[in-house]
Amino acid sequence: MLDFCYVANLLLFLYIMAFQQSGFLFLVCFGLANSTLAFAIPLLHNALVFHSIDKVTSIFIHAMPMCVVFTIRWFPEQSSRIWYAEFKPENLEEELATLLQLNLTESKLPDKVLYIAFPAATTLLVFLGQMMEFILLHFIATHPKVKRCIRFHEDKDHMNLFRLVTNTHGDKSAFLSAYPFLSYTLGMTFGGLFASAPVGLFYIYFNINTAFVVIILFSALWSGSRFYVKVFGLYHMDQENQVEGQVKVQVRLESPFGEELGSNV
């Protein structure tokens, strides 16, 4: 499946591997990790199921960036000690102040700037990500030479979230059926804006950020526990039904008419 979560993970990989001093890149990574990627866990019912590679992979893709940027934001010195380069998330505020030509008061950027910067950057990246997906799926991936290299292009239902949504719910909405890409892009863009609205609070306040991370991870644990209860519950019911069926057969065979019933069968 090709979707924006992989782009967000790639940006975080570039940040921790090569651009640890970039404040703008940390702004983007922190915003995406605590908005669209984090909200995907409860919305898509990502479950922490240890024996399922598929579910563990989904949790890793959506939760790992949130945990990494949390550690870098609030524990930069400890993070730098175990890494080959020093992390400086505070460069974010300095670079924003330079871009907006603001004077830092006590080496701190006004909170209202951060409240606007995170949603603006995150929403812009989500929108550009949708444009990139459109070009990749409808132009690059459809080229005959590319199709011979990308086998999963034939999986039209699950190649990305756009195709999954339109193929699953396209006939239930007139607007979605008439303008599938436009409706999906607008939905993802406004969804990114809504999800990134509180990110400024997460960056400024440690307690709020911690509570958010705990809630998101708890939702993954809750979905995983429900999965185990459902699976083992169904298995237990199936075992009970088998035992009950065996008991009924045994009772019928031991009844005075057991031989007659057995001969009729």
UniProtKB/TrEMBL annotation:
Its main location: membrane. It is found in: Membrane. The keyword Membrane applies. The keyword Nuclease does not apply. GO terms for biological process: phosphatidylcholine biosynthetic process. InterPro entries: GPCAT. Keywords: Acyltransferase, Lipid biosynthesis, Lipid metabolism, Membrane, Phospholipid biosynthesis, Phospholipid metabolism, Transferase, Transmembrane, Transmembrane helix. One of its GO terms (molecular function) is acyltransferase activity. Pfam families: DUF2838. One of its GO terms (cellular component) is membrane. The chain crosses the membrane at residues 12-44, 56-75, 113-141, 181-205, 211-229. It is a multi-pass membrane protein. PANTHER family: GLYCEROPHOSPHOCHOLINE ACYLTRANSFERASE 1 (PTHR31201:SF1), OS01G0585100 PROTEIN (PTHR31201). Belongs to the GPC1 family. This is Glycerophosphocholine acyltransferase 1.
